[in-house]
Amino acid sequence: MARTGQADEAGRLHARVDVAGSGEASVATGVPVLDHLIGLVAQYGSFDIALEIAPGEAEAEIAAAGRALGQALEGAPRSSGSRGHGSAVVPADEALAHVAVEASGRPLVVSNVELSDARVAGLGRDVIGTFLHELAEGAGLTIHVRLIEGSDPEHVLEAIFKALGVALAQSCRPRRREET
Q1: What are the backbone angles phi and psi of residue 43, rounded to the nearest 5°?
Q2: What are phi and psi of 147, to 5 degrees?
């Protein structure tokens, strides 16, 4: 079972990811919508995720959550024998999102999704942009996000995070060995 974890020096942050889990999530970031979205990553990726962040400003918590989760996940898709890449198209009601990830070691997020004007759960910033950029930095991932369809911001976020979970799970799977 692959387990990775990360905690800061002050004990204000703890993150653990078990990529061979069952989809259980224990998430307390102080931002309920983010807790829900990370729970979707766990569920759709069949990861066990434990993430706890001491309360603070919402934007800082979102960034810390993305970075911590990325650092806890970093070794799994980059380990010897792992595929190191994955891709998924997943719906959430009227929204349909495609997410592709690669453990490139060159953190980058390329997206056609702009939610900075949408006030999801009262947050004034682009929740997905902040979180994904920090996740990519923490794990050394290249992440491509394409919104194929969708108008409701909450459904758009759900579709993206579901697809992210599936794509990350694929990237952590062992490579198939060709039989000769």
Answers
A1: -60, -50
A2: -90, 115
Residue 136 lies in a domain: yes
Q: How far is CA 21 from CA 25, 80, 104, in A?
A: 10, 19, 24
* Residue 65 in domain: yes
Residue 177 lies in a domain: no
- What is the per-residue pLDDT for 1? 38
Judged by DSSP in three states, 100 sits in strand
Burial class of residue 121 in the structure, from the number of CB atoms within 10 Å of its CB (0-12 exposed, 13-18 middle, 19+ buried): middle
* Average pLDDT over every residue of 83-97: 96
Label residue 37 exposed, middle or buried (CB < 10 Å: 0-12, 13-18, 19+). Answer: buried
**CATH number for the domain harbouring residue 76:** 3.30.230.40
Find the Cα–Cα–Cα–Cα dihedral 127, 17, 173, 32, rounded to 10°: -30
**Which tokens sit at 5?**
């974890």
Confidence of residue 60 (pLDDT cuts 50, 70, 90): confident
Q: Which of 17, 6, 160, 145 is nearest to 76 (CA)?
A: 17
Domain count, the chain: 1
- CA–CA gap between residue 65 and residue 67 (Å, rounded): 6
Angle at 149 between CA 32 and CA 22, to 5 degrees: 45
